[in-house]
């Protein structure tokens, strides 16, 4: 039985995303370099071109045994790591990126900012699927108020382990007494 393959992100040399995707394809390694259709203006013309959506990243769907082949590919600097291991990416996330790019042109990538009073859902760890309100934001963690069982549970959670549910409305105050 063949081991299950998982999606990972690899970090590439600058401007090498398309080259790395091509080299991986030649090796028979399943990969995805999300390309964004962008209208570029030159002195004499305009033209739609395909630009990598994420600079210096290509996604690969591989087994653990294929990691060495990926690392040996020209232009690949390393895997993106999370907690000391190559970071796995859910297939649903890859599919969401593909569907979004199929439906839209000129997409921009913005880093999601989590702020105090944002409503978030914890996506990783023992508190997974719980919703709460952000109390504090630190460099790599957020402190989340979890109203559960009538008690105030406060947990410090990695920023990557929460996702924004709703930001507070402008001018509205949700401060607790």
Report the sheet with the most strands, covering strand number, pairing sense and barrel closure. 5 strands, antiparallel
Distance between the termini: 58 Å
Instruction: Evaluate the radius of gyration.
Output: 20 Å
Helix content: 10-25%
The beta-strand count equals: 14
Number of domains: 2
In terms of structural class, how would the helical and strand content be classed?
alpha+beta
Shape: globular
DSSP helical segment count = 3
Under CATH, the homologous superfamily of the largest domain reads NusG, N-terminal domain
Can you describe what's shown?
- The protein is an alpha+beta fold.
- It folds into two domains: 6-103, NusG, N-terminal domain (Alpha-Beta Plaits, 2-Layer Sandwich); 119-166, SH3 type barrels.
- The chain is 16% helix and 41% strand.
- The protein has helices at 17-26, 67-71, 91-103, and strands at 6-12, 30-32, 35-41, 46-52, 57-62, 76-79, 81-82, 85-86, 88-89, 119-122, 131-137, 141-148, 151-158, 162-166.
- The strands form four sheets. Strands 1, 2, 5, 6 and 9 form a five-stranded antiparallel β-sheet that branches. Strands 13-12-11-10-14 form a five-stranded antiparallel β-sheet, with no helix packed on it.
- Strand 7 and strand 8 (85-86) form a beta hairpin.
- The longest helix is centred in the middle third of the chain and has 13 residues, at 91-103.
- The protein is globular.
- It starts with 5 loop residues before the first strand and ends in an 11-residue tail after the last strand.
- The model is unreliable at 172-177 (pLDDT under 50).
